[in-house]
Amino acid sequence: MSLDQTGPAGGLLRIIQEQFSLDCRGVHGASHWARVRDNGLRLAALTTAKPKVVELFALLHDSRRFTNGYDPQHGTRAALYARSLAGSAFQLEAVDLDLLADACHGHSDGLMSGDITVLTCWDADRLDLGRVGVKPRPERLCTLAARDPSFIEWAYQRSIART
Ligand SMILES: [Fe+2]
């Protein structure tokens, strides 16, 4: 799975990749972003989350990681980065930009409550944990749609294949 450099988000993808501190082929790189996007868009069709926010979250949430290891401030940096790009690299209404920033800010804190779009973003990310040897547990997922065993298995198989 790869992200389309020539699609509507292609310009944003290039901007993000150019500033990314880590290897884009790594566990927090572009194939992860693509699977989070796929997970999120599938979930959004079921949860009524806002798909544009979910897609932007997928591209941005790990974009300001400085290490593949413990990096507790990377979500906060991603939220600030998202706000800095809004209005130029992408367009988003203010209320949706707040959702995107909230989703980025809290995505690695194990939180379980919030707006449905934010929760959908977090589940989309957690469903890709198989790439680092962790099978997502239903009780750690926020939405009913993500807790569906068949959804978990679909996402898990893709995550361990890292395709
Ligand atoms: Fe992630």
CATH fold description: Hypothetical protein af1432
- Give the C-alpha Rg: 14 Å
What order do the helices and strands follow? HHHHHHHH
What structural class should be given to the helix and strand makeup? mainly alpha
pLDDT averaged over residues: 95
Which segments are poorly predicted (pLDDT under 50) over 5 or more consecutive residues?
none
Distance between the termini: 5 Å
Q: Which molecules are bound in this entry? A: fe (ii) ion
Could you say which overall geometry the principal axes of the C-alpha atoms support? globular
CATH architect. name? Orthogonal Bundle
Give the percentage of residues in beta strands. Answer: under 5%
Superfamily (CATH H level) name: Hypothetical protein af1432
Domain count:
1
Largest sheet: none
